[in-house]
């Protein structure tokens, strides 16, 4: 019998025997119960869907496991929900694999799974199958989670980085750099006079609202690792267009800006886990903004630039001083193990 308050993961919990069954019953099944998972198969037989299928997968190795505004469980669900959503799809089902380190307290795993269940409920998705492995002490940061998501397309339009067109506007759904700055602040024990919170959140409802209000949207992307700058460079390269940003229009929280200045980071390259880039025709930009701002996750949405014919494959920015500079790809690693 697992004692969640005092017990810890042992190698036998990954053996596939009685201990594994007890771990599944006491924690995973308790939190994730649904009609597919409760069948207790090695996989899940899912009902048919009508429209094209969107699939994505992700791995989550954040350290620390818990941080202001979220934890590895919320991150794992929200990240995959968002990856499916930006394909122009409604996420429906998730699969989750857990790599547990020997000695991990059951109480930690229970908290993470409770957070995953709450985030899945918020997003309206079900965790329908999964797997668990245990590795020797010292071979993981307590817990890694790998997820895969399946969804159904809700638009007939191709939503992809290749589709950006000159004249389109670039919208972000909120402030940049919150997640990565929150992780580093927590990891290093730096408060900067306030608590910087991660923005980790499922954004499928925001995507659905955007596609209804601005049906000719060309690109949806979540600027996670590498931040806004790197993601826009990907889009510029894929679409063979230029992108011109306006520094004065890019929303960054004052505390995030101050922390980045102190740490020598650029918030344009810091990861976000609850923000979107929306690129759509200028004629539909106001409708898209209005739709985004109806969500609590989109109150700080702003137009930050536009797609151009000039300098194809490059991102530039008009600076606060009125000049123009290039915004290159991220080189190196600003902040390891943040998502």
TrEMBL record:
GO biological process, alphabetically ordered: protein maturation
Domain PurM-like C-terminal: 165-315
Residues in the signal sequence: none
Pfam family, one: AIRS
Protein origin, superkingdom: Bacteria
Alphabetical list of InterPro entries matching this protein: HypE, PurM-like_C_dom, PurM-like_C_sf, PurM-like_N, PurM-like_N_sf
Ranges of residues in domain PurM-like N-terminal: 42-151
Recorded coiled-coil stretches: none
Family designation: Belongs to the HypE family.
Identification of the protein by name: Hydrogenase expression/formation protein HypE
